[in-house]
Amino acid sequence: MQFGRALVTLAALAVCGVAAFPAEPEIRFTSTPAPGTTELDPNHVPDSVCVSMQPAHGPNEPKKTDPPYVVTVSSRKVSKGDTVRVVVKGLASETFKGIYIQGRINDLPVGRWLPHDNPQVRVLDCSPRKENALSFVSRNGINSITLEWVAPEDVKGDLIFLTTIVKSYDAFWTKVRSTPLQVL
């Protein structure tokens, strides 16, 4: 009899849209509370994340396998102030729930990201520059996202976009490399 009641309860929860099992832990790239609160500040990325690009996912480590994702750019050469489209895409129908991306020259984040119409995309600051990192986090997986990045006015050289791509809380790849780009 108890088993039957449990099944009825689970079925009722499912019909009402209530999860019968705990949800996957939240995907996040920040571990710092907003000043004066205990809430995580989605607009602040600790300096350690700016360098490591690793999400705050407890003991989980990045995957060592080849990622089922690619990061492509719309141009191979740009001048200062030019805009580049950057696409993060899953191979075949592979989806992801989060990304953290920077354009780097000599391992320093440069350039700036343009605002995105998706409210789950956040343009972030990695000191000492502004708007030089970007994150996207969602509970629902997507197959691709197109972003816009503006080349720096004061730095030239070979640039690579490094991206952390999160498939799930415990499956993510850090510093996935784009095709190279030359800033003239």
TrEMBL record:
Its chief place of residence is secreted
Keywords in alphabetical order: Antibiotic, Antimicrobial, Immunity, Innate immunity, Secreted, Signal
Write down the InterPro entries for this protein, in alphabetical order. Ferric-chelate_Red/DefProt, Reeler_dom, Reeler_sf
Name this protein carries in UniProt = Reelin domain-containing protein
Where does the record place a coiled coil?
none
Give the signal peptide, or none. 1-20
Residue span, Reelin domain: 35-184
Q: What Gene3D superfamilies does this protein's entry cite? A: Reeler domain
